[in-house]
Write a structure and sequence with these properties.
The structure is a homotetramer of 206-residue chains. Chain A has 206 residues and is of the alpha/beta class. Chain A folds into two domains: 1-33; 35-204, 3-Layer(aba) Sandwich (Rossmann fold), CATH 3.40.50. In chain A, 49% of the residues lie in helices and 17% in strands. Chain A has helices spanning 2-32, 49-62, 79-83, 101-112, 140-153, 180-204; strands at residues 37-43, 67-73, 87-93, 126-133, 157-158, 167-170. In chain A, helix 4 (101-112) links the parallel strand 3 and strand 4 (126-133). In chain A, helix 2 (49-62) crosses helix 6 (180-204). The first copy, chain A, is globular and about 45 Å long. The two termini of chain A are 43 Å apart. The relative contact order of chain A is 0.17. Chains in contact: A-B, A-C, A-D, B-C, B-D, C-D. At the A-B interface, helix 1, helix 5, strand 5 and helix 6 of A face helix 1, helix 2, helix 6, strand 5 and helix 7 of B.
């Protein structure tokens, strides 16, 4: 009898425990121990300007708790890098009012090398852009918009940050190189993307 | 016997508890009783073509359970319509390779009339676009991209659907009016936006 | 005899005169007394920034000998203004990453009010754009590109000047208002357009 | 008799003079023996679709009397090809809503290999674009517009033709490959560019 009672108590305890665990589980786990989101920052840089911006984007993304950030030159990015990421931020210098040939070829390789189409393997990942260019209003907007357009064609979820289309820097003329304000915008972009990726990743994983 | 009865009762209770826990727990609640998301479809139409597309976008959005859809001409949209929405889908005919003056004025009014700036009151709402135009490659892409650009400047989260930039229809020439394939794309856009809005709304509401 | 001599003299004079007139006529007339070309500068301005740029564009165009320049707000432009011009330069403030509703409506009116389609009445006229915007990389490029796109759809001949897409000014932040460099770019745009309009007008009139 | 002889001589001289004047004068020379203009058509093609369009563009340009046309793949174009041309028409397949990496790299090489900057060696040459893409409204406009943007940055004089931004073809779906209407548009583009190049070349040669 005693043992039966013990079984009864144990079962009661089990039921109680499950109830408590269950009711507490989801909310706290999601809010206090967030799933890590992985952000890939891919860039091309000849002079080092876009690289400096890329590093600031990384810094901004890392400032969001639970974010893993991978920084790579576009030529180094693998299919695994792309598919394992929750968000991809692509940066390019402006060459003739558009992303550089290296960055364009990187996007072409999504299809030719990485085979992301026709399954739309990048679907619902977050996408964003940054750009550096010699002059004001000489292609940074178009560079960012066409990066975002490539991402939209991949059914990615696209955001700006640190500027109307993304973060950008003017690297010649009165404001040579990358200044503090531009780095701040790059950080804001990284943070923004990590925030949105977290929002979507958390919801998707339920 | 009593103890056996108790064990049976306890087991029954355990099963019941697990059922209740399950039905209340986040996963099932989110999937079976989703939070309603509100999608605003705003359009301008002179000939009725863009209106037909708008109606198909509405149909697509409504096909996602728990979605409330509001359909309005851009001139009828109020600040309350905008601020209470989780997603906004804007459609325009192509006039000279861009959205119509009516749609552009609608966006200008976000600031001049509705005062969404500088607080970025549309932040994190989902945005998308659709367009109709007489000819192929004569402005539908630019119309959709510039609608999305306006949304990105508002810190909205932007998606495509039913096409690389959104849903579109060619209304003159060999394919006059709106055909079935174009309506299917419009529905796909509505559904895509509702899906993403739900994803983000669910996560944000935690 | 005397009269015959006189006839000889007169004929000689006639031949000489024709030779002189002819040899001098075409070249000098085209190069030294150029056909006047008419440049229309049309703009929208709320704060006065785009107006200041417009005035500098006018100044630049006037610096080219034989150029007649008309400066008007977009709402004041008539069909006659458009059709009698050899070149049209349109300027807009950036509202949500695009030209203002006023400027967009102006372009829509080319069709709705002025009936330039389907005869393409603006064909072969020179077109160009300028823009002012609060921030760097927040829509000035898109504004100018979409103005140019509207012109291309009208079979106009499009040029830049004073910048990669046209002249532009950043009016807030560190560089509030319109500075000297921006005015210089606006003048360069006006001059560039007048130069190209002259080139084309001269050739067309042969 | 002497005076009659003189009159005859003078008349003969007058006729001779007028003939000489006429043959030398600009008008007749320019209209009857036009300066040849050189049009370079440069393209990238993987499947042959863009190549077929390129050939039709060539055909259209050749239909304008006094036009010399050179057809080359972008990778084959030399600095001499560029600098000796009066007009350049660039064609690309759409890869992810933009020109292909090959075409983008071609433009980058204008600077890196051919050294056209900072002297703006392409200034005042006529530029135009064509594109092929699998779907309607999935990047052909952006591809053409960004080709034109690269040309505008080079201070070229830009035109459309055979469509609002240039000639384009949809190569998959209901309208697989290149159809007659699309070839007609490609020819119209070639003709348009040759016409404008002639207009400008003739005037510049004064």
């Amino acid at each position: 009898m005693a043992s039966v009672m013990n079984i009864e108590k144990l079962l009661a305890l089990a039921v109680f425990s499950l109830t408590v665990i269950s009711s507490v589980s989801h909310k706290s786990w999601a809010e206090e121990i967030p799933l890590p989101v992985k952000v890939l920052v891919a860039y091309h840089s000849l002079t080092g300007n876009t690289e400096r911006m890329a590093e600031a984007v990384v810094e901004g993304a890392k400032s969001v708790p639970g974010t893993i950030v991978v920084l790579k030159r576009v030529g180094q990015v693998t299919a695994e890098d792309l598919f394992s990421s929750d968000a991809v931020i692509v940066g390019s210098p402006v060459y003739w009012s558009n992303m550089s040939g290296e960055v364009k070829t990187f996007f072409d390789n999504w299809q030719f090398k990485f085979g992301i189409f026709p399954e739309f393997k990048m679907k619902n990942k977050v996408g964003a852009a940054f750009a550096t260019g010699g002059q004001i209003s000489s292609g940074k907007e178009v560079t960012m918009l066409t990066i975002l357009a490539a991402m939209l064609g991949n059914q990615m979820i696209v955001v700006s940050g640190g500027g109307a289309f993304g973060a950008s820097a003017t690297t010649e003329g009165d404001s040579a190189g990358i200044d503090e304000k531009e780095l701040t915008n790059a950080k804001a972009l990284g943070q923004r993307v990590a925030d949105v990726a977290k929002l979507i990743s958390r919801s998707s994983s339920h």
